[in-house]
Design a protein that fits this description.
Blueprint (H helix, E strand, L loop, with lengths): L1 H6 L6 H18 L7 H23 L4 E4 L18 E4 L1 H24 L8 H17 L3 H17 L6 H32 L9 E2 L3 H18 L7 H8 L2 H27 E2 L2 H23 L4 H22 L2 H32 L15 H14 L6 H16 L5 H4 L1 H28 L14 H19 L10 H4 L10 H21 L11 E2 L2 E2 L8 H10 L1 H11 L5 H19 L4 H19 L1
Parallel strand pairs: 3-4
Antiparallel strand pairs: 1-2, 5-6
């Protein structure tokens, strides 16, 4: 088999690597100078660039694993001599898989954006989109930590620029996103500095740091902070729901739903499997963070009425499953975490694009303002239903396959002797509970938007243009195929990364899919044979007046019961007051500290002398 594969693989030219990174970045910079009135042409140019880079990702994917250095670029320059040693790139199985899916999502979302992005929605949308694409390639392929951080930092700026600050709320969200991402990047610098101090190397593939002392643990936690913030994991997750609500749906599909998850979890995989050897405490910390992320975010999603914000909380919740898989550290656990990362990017980007289609046709963002759109927008409804069942872990869709692998990994993990191993039943129970609650919240979303009574104002609503629903159909087909062929085909995509693994128990995705199809066919046969479709309907009357056409049940009302439980009501109230928002807590602390310092400026000379002396003493103590 290896000999057969080697026929179709060969070393990739360094110029291909330069081209795939620089073409989108330079293309984006040039598009900044084209006026916004030519927005559609800018979009077509962006699509062309994404097609070219997509082809190059296929070339790279079929190439052999290798480490490339660009030192020869500066070999003739005395000023920049030695700078090229930082330009090292690693083409391995993990990076090849990630850039392949980055290309897929970029192309589909760009096609969708041609119609969706209107004038005034986001200024210079396509230039920043392309710069994000090029820097994403650069970050994934970089082996040098400083080079990686350079591309990673630019992605924080483009994330900020892809949300339009058209009002106070959206401007605050953009600022919050930039500050959180920027702060986490600053913390990552500390981790990189410690790694350089410990190992003398900045290569992600050239270090293997045991977490046996406080210094190495601090380095791991510093890099973990950057990974968690980018992916949107607890407690650095609060920017994701706000961004999902305020940003255009295509921006949310591109970044928090797909690219940021791919980048954040990719880096988590690097630091947990390649760069560090985790001790028992850090393994426990990862698993605990995973289940907390799952439960907290899904509980918040249950009470949301804004469907874009609801999707934002689910973008957080699903990260918990990825952390669980990677935290297990086993072959099947890591494979399951990466598989769920890809699956999440598929169905969550599809859900955000579906939300954009609903917003595009109705102009509404609240679930209770909608209803009965299934007949008016059948393709969007079908795609949304597939995405909803996928994220909820309903077989035979892809979300079920990766969650099942995570469950198996947790059960296998329970055979260990550590404290985290002995708590396997807790990790498993909370993961399954999170999946059930996810299904409950998507029953609200699908029922409230598509299946309840249609309002009179939506009688003339039509399906979105083909250029918008085509990406939805493609993503939904991926969700189905990745679920049906998970065990025998799709799981093999991750074996070159993690190594071979086996599924325990009597489960095969194709066999499960066959059983589901058989049950559907039997249900249709029984329905037709028993003539169940003939049933009687009657109007409702109050005081002799017909009210059937005027009554409907608001789906969101049922879920209000959850927020009215005594304990939950207190939690939700504090959440609304942003007690659990790390950004808001830090903001309040800084304001309080600033106020205290301003109070110290009393205008009395004696007070200032005391401050100066205290500062000098502190500096001397530090120097000693």
């Amino acid at each position: 088999m290896n000999e057969f594969i080697s026929i179709f693989t060969r070393p990739v030219d360094s110029q291909v690597l330069q081209f795939i990174i620089l073409l989108p970045i330079l293309g984006g910079l040039l598009l900044l100078f084209i006026p916004e009135k030519f927005r559609t042409y800018k979009g077509l140019i962006a699509i062309l660039i994404s097609v070219i880079t997509g082809y190059l990702t296929i070339v790279i994917y079929r190439s052999e694993n290798q480490m490339l250095s660009q030192d020869q670029l500066f070999s003739g320059s005395l000023l920049l001599h030695g700078f090229g040693r930082f330009l090292t790139f690693n083409i391995d199985n993990l990076s090849k898989l990630i850039i392949l899916f980055i290309s897929l999502f970029a192309l589909l979302i760009l096609v969708y954006s041609i119609v969706y992005i209107k004038e005034g929605r986001v200024k210079n949308y396509y230039p920043y989109f392309l710069i994000t694409l090029g820097c994403s390639y650069g970050a994934i392929l970089s082996d040098n930590l400083l080079l990686f951080l350079f591309f990673w930092g630019i992605l924080g700026l483009t994330l900020y620029k892809l949300i339009h600050g058209h009002d106070e709320e959206s401007s605050a969200t953009a600022k919050k996103t930039l500050i959180l991402i920027g702060a986490s990047d600053s913390i990552m610098i500390i981790g990189i500095a410690i790694i350089w101090k410990i190992t003398g190397s900045l290569s992600m593939g050239g270090v293997k740091v045991p977490t046996t002392n406080i210094v190495s643990v601090v380095a791991f936690l510093a890099l973990l902070t950057g990974s968690f913030t980018k992916a949107g994991a607890f407690p650095f997750h609060t920017w994701v729901p706000d961004y999902a609500k305020s940003a255009p749906a295509s921006s949310s599909a591109y970044l928090p739903a797909s690219l940021d998850k791919l980048l954040g979890i990719y880096f988590l995989a690097r630091i947990t499997t390649d760069m560090f050897v985790l001790n028992g405490f850090l393994t426990f910390l990862l698993l605990l963070t995973g289940v907390i992320t799952i439960i907290i975010a899904v509980m918040m999603a249950l009470i949301q009425h804004n469907y874009k914000r609801l999707l934002g909380f689910h973008a957080v919740s699903q990260v918990g499953y990825m952390i669980l898989g990677l935290g297990l550290g086993s072959t099947i656990g890591v494979a399951a975490g990466l598989f769920h990362m890809v699956n999440h990017a598929l169905y969550k980007s599809g859900l955000f694009l579906s939300a954009g289609s609903i917003e595009y046709r109705t102009g509404k963002e609240e679930i209770e303002d909608l209803g009965g759109l299934s007949k008016a927008m059948p393709i969007t409804f079908f795609a949304s239903l597939v995405f909803a069942m996928s994220i909820s872990g309903v077989p035979p869709f892809n979300g079920f396959a990766s969650k099942w692998m995570i469950y198996q990994g947790i059960i296998d993990f329970g055979s260990g002797t550590g404290i985290a191993n002995k708590l396997w039943i807790l990790w498993l129970g909370l993961a399954v509970l999170g999946s059930a609650l996810t299904l409950a919240s998507f029953i609200k979303l699908i029922g409230g938007i598509f299946l309840s009574r249609r309002k009179a104002e939506f009688e003339n609503i039509k399906e979105v243009p083909v250029i918008m629903w085509l990406p939805l159909v493609i993503l939904s087909v991926f969700c189905i195929l990745f679920g049906v062929f998970a065990t025998k085909v799709v799981s093999k995509l991750f074996m070159p990364i993690t190594g071979p693994f086996k599924f325990t128990g009597f489960w095969d995705s194709s066999f499960v899919s066959l059983l589901v199809i058989i049950s559907l066919i039997l249900g249709i046969i029984l329905y037709l044979a028993l003539n169940i479709k003939k049933f009687r309907t009657e109007d409702s009357f109050i005081g002799g007046e017909r009210i059937q056409d005027r009554t409907s049940y608001a789906t969101t009302e049922f879920y209000k019961t959850i927020g009215e439980f005594k304990f939950f009501s207190w939690i939700y109230k504090k959440a609304e007051e942003r007690w659990f928002d790390l950004y808001d807590l830090c903001k309040q602390f800084v304001l309080w500290l600033s106020h205290q310092l301003s109070e110290a400026h009393s205008g009395v000379l004696t007070g200032y002398i005391i401050w100066v002396c205290a500062g000098l003493i502190i500096m001397l103590l530090i120097m000693i």
